[in-house]
Design goal:
Helix content: 25-40%
Strand order of the largest sheet: 5-6-1-4-7
CATH class: Alpha Beta
Distance between the termini: 36 Å
CATH architecture: 3-Layer(aba) Sandwich
Strand content: 15-25%
Structural class: alpha+beta
Order of helices and strands: HEHEEEHEHEHE
Number of strands: 7
Shape: globular
């Protein structure tokens, strides 16, 4: 320990605090012109969709010092990016070209109220006509970087 390093109260926490570089990346993209509530809604749905498709993303349940148990969280950071509808469509196309399974959210889903209606709304439109307001993808870091090239981190 150097003079500048603060003491670690519990040495067992040192490993938990060490930075981890994941070989994978989890990115959610929202359209830049959405209202804040829409961005939050879209990001939540997309993160849930990817986690449902990739159950290994879930960490272990949390437990506090009083032995109370809490729900699990995603085990790695989720980057939130932004772009135009056309940029999101490009990212979806790139993901599909790489054999990835992107989760998508379209403008029409704001008018539906449940999963079956959401799926029907997407099924009624050709790929080229989908009005993307968000997408999410998880996979190899290099592949995700290629899929999301040109998008910006959300401010």
């Amino acid at each position: 320990m150097t003079i500048a390093d603060p003491p670690i109260a519990d040495p067992s926490l040192a490993a938990a605090e060490a930075p981890i570089r994941f070989d994978t990346k989890f990115v959610v993209v929202v359209r830049d012109d959405l209202a804040v509530w829409q961005k939050l809604n879209v990001a939540s749905f997309l993160a849930g969709g990817v986690t449902g498709s990739e159950p290994q993303l879930l960490g272990e349940p949390y437990r506090d010092a009083s032995d109370k148990v809490y729900g699990r969280l995603v085990r790695q950071p989720i980057l939130v990016m932004t772009g135009s509808g056309a940029e999101i469509a490009t990212a979806v196309r790139r993901a599909k070209e790489r054999g990835m399974l992107p989760s998508i959210y379209t403008q029409a889903l704001f008018a539906t109220g449940h999963d079956a209606a959401n799926r029907a709304a997407v099924a009624s439109v050709t790929t080229e006509a989908l009005d993307f307001v968000g997408m999410a993808v998880y996979g190899d870091r290099k592949d995700v970087d290629k899929v999301t090239k040109g998008l910006r981190l959300h401010p």
